[in-house]
Amino acid sequence: MSTRQTRRKSAKLREAAAAAASSDDDQKPIIMNGNGSAHHTPEATDIEEDENIFLFWPNIIGYIRIVLAIASLYYMPVHPRTCSVLYSISCLLDAFDGYAARIFEQSTRFGAVLDMVTDRCTTSCLLVFLSSAFPRWAILFQGLIALDFSSHYMHMYATLVVGGSDSSHKNIDKSQNWLLNLYYTNKNVLFTLCALNELFFIGLYLLAFSSPWLSPHLIKSVEETSGGFINPGAPVNTSLLRQMFPDPFSASALEIARANKMDSLIPWAIAGISLPFMVIKQAINGVQLYNASKWLADVDIKMRKQKGLPRKNKAKRV
């Protein structure tokens, strides 16, 4: 093949390649800029849409839990049956958000924190009501609130410090503590203890409306409870504030509570059966608080050694 023929063949190959490239470009959509210049749009694979974490199914379940919990608090002073049903459903949904996270692959840090915060707040609100219903035991309920918040906060903070931001508060080695490892890794143990712990407080709450032995005001009349007699035809305070914010422990509210009270047999059975599990759950909270404190102290010791602390005293100058 002569040199001229070789050149012609190379030129044809270049023209064919240019034509092919031009046809590929023509198939891509063109967008005109405001200044009149044109450019090809990037392919769909180059565009990544940000996911809306707040609308993940586990988090939506978490929002439903919050709404149910608020509704149960609204009915808590005078409607024990309605309150117990709403509160129980809110607690049971705690198990479903975990299943939803695994099924839809939507496990997030926001969801984990939302779940923990909801648990702590709902339980503490119920304990606050029990403190007012049983004032002699208020210090015990206040102590349980403090233990619950402090143990989980310390544990969460220690996990982030020791394991880093990618770690989970449920990742506990057996070498660290076998009890916490069993509690956080075994779903049956975790669900049983949390559910029966809440069930004990619900049973105690129901006893406030059903057991005169625990709540002596249930056997008192409206006049004795309110501190005075109600005269027929007496003017009623119908101010807007009184209608919007009625006193949950007023004579009328307590009368409604007595009308909604139930037999104490079932509440006593609920409280008696769930009491040992509540004690175990509180013991785990105590162990969690102790271990988290120890982990943080160990980290402090290592950091102080790295910084050369405590500094040795320099030899005194003569």
UniProtKB/TrEMBL annotation:
The keyword Ligase does not apply. It is a multi-pass membrane protein. Residues 1-42 are annotated as: Disordered. GO terms for cellular component: Golgi apparatus; membrane. One of its GO terms (biological process) is phosphatidylinositol biosynthetic process. The chain crosses the membrane at residues 60-78, 84-104, 125-147, 189-209. InterPro entries: CDP-OH_P_trans (IPR000462), CDP-OH_PTrfase_TM_dom (IPR043130), CDP_ALCOHOL_P_TRANSF_CS (IPR048254). It is found in: Membrane. Keywords: Lipid metabolism, Membrane, Phospholipid metabolism, Transferase, Transmembrane, Transmembrane helix. One of its GO terms (molecular function) is CDP-diacylglycerol-inositol 3-phosphatidyltransferase activity. Residues 1-11 have a biased composition (Basic residues). It comes from the Eukaryota. Pfam families: CDP-OH_P_transf. Belongs to the CDP-alcohol phosphatidyltransferase class-I family. PANTHER family: CDP-DIACYLGLYCEROL--INOSITOL 3-PHOSPHATIDYLTRANSFERASE, PHOSPHATIDYLINOSITOL SYNTHASE. This is CDP-diacylglycerol-inositol 3-phosphatidyltransferase. The lineage of its organism: Eukaryota, Fungi, Dikarya, Ascomycota, Pezizomycotina.
